[in-house]
Amino acid sequence: MITSKKLLKHKKISHGFFNRNGGKSKGIYTSLNCGPGSNDNQTRIRQNLEIVKEKISKKSKDIFLLNQIHSSKYVFINKNYKFSKKKIKADAIITDQKKIPIAVLTADCVPLLLYDSTRNMIAAIHAGWRGAFKGIITKVINFMLKNGCKTNNINVSIGPCIGKMNYNVKNNFKKKFIQKDKKNEVFFSHRKNTIYFDLPNFVRSQLKLNKITKIDMKNTDTFNKKNNFFSARRSLRLKHDDYGRNISIIMIN
């Protein structure tokens, strides 16, 4: 489990970015696969989620997960929220309630954990390029600001994700970003006739555009095998038919 120095300073919350160590899954899912959407054994996935929950808190409710769809949609859990077994289709969770661990699943996309230390509100965001492009980060921050948070109180940790050296893209991908904003050119580099995209720094730029300054970036590349994270792109290169998911979690104690 990796933690954020910025978030660790705040004792009212618990959090963690988990890699693939310490779980029950086998084969290509070895071992802490937390993705119910994968083809892994569902009993083992539930056991893995329980392992994660125990590390965060032994007295908390079940981990709240989404049906992630690469969107800019989010859900807010307040004291009147009615929980259902059916997962919400969205890519971010916000709450001000205690003992509810909220989490996102990734396998190269960017996980973000947010905490407003005065309002005591947290958020977890799944930001792949689509979600980031559609403005999910801005939408979550705007919601938090409208509900009593302040930009100078919001701490954000950008978790492990694919690094720019391993994120090769096609020219039409680059064009899409440049057409939206010419300044996005800075997030692309060229090497041996291949275009590479700097997803983590694009995500960081979205935070800065929203005047968030308390940012902690882990700079851990999920594609790099030595870091021991699940990676969709690495699995594709290895011709696996599926892949596990990493979990990033935060909770108000």
Task: Write up what this structure looks like.
With 253 residues, the chain is an alpha+beta fold. It has one domain: CNF1/YfiH-like putative cysteine hydrolases, CATH 3.60.140.10. It is 25% helix and 23% strand. The chain has 7 helices and 12 strands. The protein has helices spanning 5-8, 42-56, 129-134, 136-146, 171-180, 199-209, 232-237, and strands at 13-17, 75-77, 92-95, 102-106, 110-116, 121-127, 154-158, 168-169, 188-191, 194-197, 214-217, 246-252. The strands form 3 sheets. The protein has a 6-stranded mixed sheet with strand order 2-3-6-5-7-11. Strands 1-12-4 form a 3-stranded antiparallel sheet, with no helix packed on it. β5 (110-116) and β6 form a beta hairpin. The longest helix has 15 residues, at 42-56.
In short:
The protein is α+β, with helices and mostly antiparallel strands.
Task: Pick out its properties.
single chain; 253 residues; alpha+beta; CNF1/YfiH-like putative cysteine hydrolases; 3-stranded antiparallel beta sheet; 7 helices; 12 strands; 25% helix; globular
Summarize the topology:
Blueprint: H1 5-8, E1 13-17, H2 42-56, E2 75-77, E3 92-95, E4 102-106, E5 110-116, E6 121-127, H3 129-134, H4 136-146, E7 154-158, E8 168-169, H5 171-180, E9 188-191, E10 194-197, H6 199-209, E11 214-217, H7 232-237, E12 246-252
Parallel strand pairs: 2-3, 7-11
Antiparallel strand pairs: 1-12, 3-6, 4-12, 5-6, 5-7, 8-10, 9-10
